[in-house]
Structure formats: structure tokens, C-alpha cells
Design goal:
The chain is of the alpha+beta class and 343 residues long. It is built from ten helices and twelve strands. It folds into two domains: 35-138, Beta-Lactamase (2-Layer Sandwich), CATH 3.30.450; 146-333, Alpha-Beta Plaits, CATH 3.30.70. Residues 142-173 form a coiled coil.
């Protein structure tokens, strides 16, 4: 007694469906998918212009019975198609089979404004007939979402302007502020730094000094307006993440500084790490564009790193350079010097 088996069964697998079976499966799936997407489908006989098939969504949009469309073609419509749509259809009919034509149309029809993206493709059937398949996607929801995003960006930009304008006001400690960033002027910052060094020597108080630099943008270079918006946003974040007893300063260009009184290096590093993460998550809107920025930081402390002004600033500079060399978007601690033992 002998038995036969298919190759698929011999290998423990199932027999793949033939083309007819697969077409039947797709015939069930495709209409449901098109209905879910709200896509309009129309299939026309290229020779006669009669509709071979329209889905329910297309029949409802045309406000015409599907049977009438199949019998009369476009003559069944209460109003003729606008000229640009007729021209696009004629263009698609002149193309070789299987070469699609995609176009967008904004038109007024039946007293309403419409905007659609249309995919047209000429196909050959098994009996030799040519049919033009058209898929229509309504662009109105997409346009509404784009408008909503534009309005949201405008609101964000306006809010950022209001916040940045607040930085122009006088500081709470009565010190003059830089109008461009709302941070302390360099002269005031340097005076605060000299005072912190004096207190460190006289009263053994520690403090931290941080150099902050904006990293170069990952994409195209920013124009001056974008750079100003990013600097103002960073300045606002610096103020939000420091105390009234601290001092923040715009050193110039893309460089900033923070003086944190009565704070050790470890605590200063933790606070600056939090600031760094906030910067990376911040969205700046300038000219309708979304900008992302990151910062590099060098953190040094007095008296553990250095007790002299120039040495402390050099330690900050070296730590900042190290953070930038590692790719940016990070904070680096200055190296702790170890005394050389002499025998």
C-alpha cells in the first residue's frame, strides 16, 4: 500500500495557498482595511468609463448608488468632476500598466472644499480588459493636525518669549542682570567668585564652580535668532536649577558659568546632571521650528580642586574640554590633584 504526500507535507509544513485562494483572502481583508482607513476605492473600465467597482465609502462620498455608477459611469453623478481631476485621470490612462500616478488635489465640488491624495494605477485583467484603480485618501484630517501642531508651536514660542522677557527684570538680590539672558553680569559674577574664594580661605567654606557650554547642533547650523532662543532657554533653566545664593553668568558666545555657594563637588555634580537632562529634553521653538539642544559641563570645587582663582578656572576648563571630547551632552568632574611626595 502506497501513499502520496505533497512537498509541503513531507517537510512537516502546510501547503501554501494558490493564487486564487490568496486573492480570496485579500478580497476579505482589503475592504475592511480600506474602511478602517476611510479610503475611497473606485475601479473603472478604461475603455467604457463604467465603474467596475466602488466601495461603500466612495459611493457615499459621490452621493450616488453603486448600481447607477456601474451602469452609467460618471454620467450618474449629479455634478461633473472638476477639470483637474478629469485631466489627472486621462493622464493615468495614458501611462503603461502597473505604473502608478499619485497626485494631490484641492478642489471645490458640490459646494464644499475638498483635498485628497489620489493613487491611480492602470491594470490588465486576465480577460484582456484594462481597468483604472483609484484610491482616494482625505487629506483634511492631516491638514487639521498640521494646523494644530503649528498653533501649538506658536503658543510654545509665545510662552518662551514671555518667560525670557521675565529674565530681563532685576534680579531678586538687587544685582543688575544681562538683558540678553537675564543672568548676572560678568563683573558681578567675578566679584561673587572673589568673595567666595575669600570666605573659603577665612572660614573654610567650600563652593563649586561650573563651566557650561552649548554643544554644536546635530543637524544644520542655527541662525542667530535660533541661537538667541536657545541661549535664553538655557539661561532660564540655569536660573530654575540654582538657588538665590548661587550666581549664574553668560561668559559670552555659547559659554555660561555657575557659582554654587556652600556646595561640594558631589552635590554640584548631581544638580548639574539634572540640569543637563532637562536641557536634552527641552524643546525650543524658533521661527516655527522645533530645536533640540544639549550642553557639556565641567565641574570643579574649592578648596579640593584648587584654592586659587586661575587654577580653579583652568580646572573647570579642562573638565569641560573632557566632556566635549567624549561627545558632549555630559558633565565631567575636574581631576583631584594629588600632592607629590618627596623622599
Amino acid at each position: 500500500m502506497t501513499s502520496t504526500s505533497s512537498p509541503g507535507a513531507a517537510q512537516g509544513g502546510s501547503t501554501p495557498p494558490d493564487d486564487l485562494h490568496l486573492a480570496g483572502l485579500l478580497g476579505h481583508v482589503l475592504p475592511a482595511w480600506l474602511a478602517r482607513q476611510g479610503t475611497l476605492l473606485a475601479v473603472k473600465d478604461a475603455a467604457t468609463g463604467a465603474y467596475v467597482h466602488v466601495n461603500d465609502a466612495m459611493a457615499q462620498w459621490l452621493q450616488c448608488d453603486a448600481a447607477a455608477l456601474r451602469a452609467q459611469g460618471d454620467a450618474a453623478l449629479s455634478m461633473p468632476w472638476p477639470a483637474p481631476l478629469r485631466a489627472a485621470e486621462q493622464h493615468a490612462l495614458q501611462l503603461p500598466p502597473d505604473k502608478p500616478l499619485q497626485s494631490e488635489h484641492r478642489f471645490e465640488w458640490r459646494g464644499a472644499l475638498h483635498e485628497y491624495s489620489v493613487w491611480r494605477e492602470l491594470r490588465l485583467l486576465a480577460d484582456g480588459r484594462r481597468v483604472l484603480c483609484s484610491l482616494w485618501s482625505d487629506l483634511a484630517p492631516q491638514r487639521r493636525e498640521q494646523q494644530r501642531v503649528r498653533e501649538l508651536l506658536q503658543q510654545m514660542e509665545q510662552q518662551q518669549r514671555l518667560l525670557n522677557e521675565q529674565l530681563d527684570r532685576q534680579g531678586g538680590d538687587g544685582s543688575p542682570l544681562d538683558r540678553a539672558t537675564g543672568l548676572h553680569l560678568r563683573e558681578f559674577f567675578d566679584e561673587q567668585l572673589r568673595r567666595a574664594l575669600l570666605l573659603s580661605v577665612q572660614e573654610s567654606r567650600e563652593f563649586a564652580l561650573v563651566w557650561v557650554a552649548l554643544d554644536a547642533p546635530a543637524g544644520p547650523a542655527w541662525d542667530e535668532a535660533a541661537q538667541a532662543s536657545v541661549r535664553a532657554t538655557l539661561a532660564r533653566l540655569l536660573r530654575a536649577n540654582t538657588r538665590a545664593t548661587d550666581s549664574t553668568c553668560h561668559l559670552g558666545g555659547q559659554r555660561f558659568a555657575v557659582l554654587m555657594a556652600n556646595v561640594g563637588m558631589a552635590l554640584a555634580y548631581g544638580r548639574m546632571e539634572q540640569l543637563r537632562r532637562e536641557c536634552a529634553a527641552q524643546i525650543v521653538v524658533s521661527g516655527g521650528r522645533e530645536l533640540r539642544f544639549t550642553v557639556s559641563m565641567g565641574v570643579a570645587g574649592c578648596p579640593h580642586i584648587a584654592a586659587e582663582l586661575t587654577e580653579l578656572q583652568s580646572a573647570c576648563e579642562a573638565a569641560l574640554a573632557q566632556a566635549q571630547q567624549r561627545g558632549g551632552d555630559q558633565a565631567a568632574l575636574a581631576r583631584v590633584p594629588f600632592p607629590v611626595l618627596q623622599s
